Amino acid sequence: MPSDQQRLERIQRAIVGSNWDALICSLPTNVLLLSGYWPVVGTSLAVATKDGQVGLVVPEDEHELAGKSWAHELCTFEGGSLDEIKTATKAVRAPLSQLAKKLKITGAIGYEAGDFHEPSSYASMHFFGGTLRDIISEAVPNAQLVSADDQLKALRSVKTPNEIARLRAACAIAEKAFEHGRKNLCAGLTETEVAAEFRDLLSTKGVGFNGVERADGFTFCMSRPNSAEAYAAYQRSRSRALEPGDLALVHCNSYADGFWTDITRTFCIGEPDHRKRRLYEAIFAAREAALKAVRPGAKNASVDRAAREILEKHGFKKEFKHGSGHEVGFSAINHTAHPRIHPASVETLETGMVFNIEPGIYIEGWGGMRHCDMVAATDDGAELLTPFQATLEELIIH
After folding, report:
1. For residue 174, which of 217, 220, 119 has the smallest C-alpha distance?
2. One domain for residues 172 and 270
3. pTM for this one?
């Protein structure tokens, strides 16, 4: 992974500004932030210093992947052997101590101290949790440990040009998957079968695309009355078979080397009737209004209001049951991350923030519709990272 100089400089400024010697992280999201490497099973540690140096402690079997990071120092450990059953907490202590000495860390250290929201990087993941403090204390005995949660949240909220480029690649992979899924979408398929059609290409076309090492994701289809529940905190495909006239809401959270997408399209199986056309018209108008409101310095709540007022004018005030968007990038869905495009948000947008715009209408017992795009805030306004399937004609399945 080529070094991201802007990211390294931002990390260094945060460390110096906090009067720390170093910052040590264990969550894969933060290891990616600091080093450009997205750990597989969650047992890696990343260290960044006030001098701009970055070190990694990784299990031996992740050495090849981690070697493509921009870390200046890379230490490995043996996670287990036939001679000994060893926990990761025990295994990382010695290499972290060696790395701390090599990087001359002696003073205050920022670390992950609070609760967290973390996307899955593998089928099973390890989290150091509260033991991270003990590990660091043993590796650097005289260090003062300070919570770095606020600084990490701020660092993750504004992406560098290199990170936005990687998100464009993740969105381009998702576009291929959506094109494939649309071609195979038809009445008779179950929701689970539709979801599988949209998921397959996330990995088969993702791995190797622009040098991507690991790509896959999660897709869901919700149709007819099930789509009315798509405002919930999670999505769920069922065994229901699609019928002519159905709305089929397809939701995708995909990743490419740790950079995530959050995309939704709602397809109509056959020609939409007047009621469905009203929904599409309202959704697209709300989407357009929100995109026009995106600019550096704009209040997040004003972007939400732009979409919400349009849906209210179309008669769907009560049917829009969630915020208009949230941060996307280092995770697909993290409702504590900045920015929040929400009526109660008091924050403002900055150039480099990446988030989704997702106006939705959910009518209980009848159906639901959402159009969710990925957006980057630029000096000139919104850069749409997911411009595909953005017209009614593209969403009608004939």
Report:
1. 217
2. yes
3. 0.96
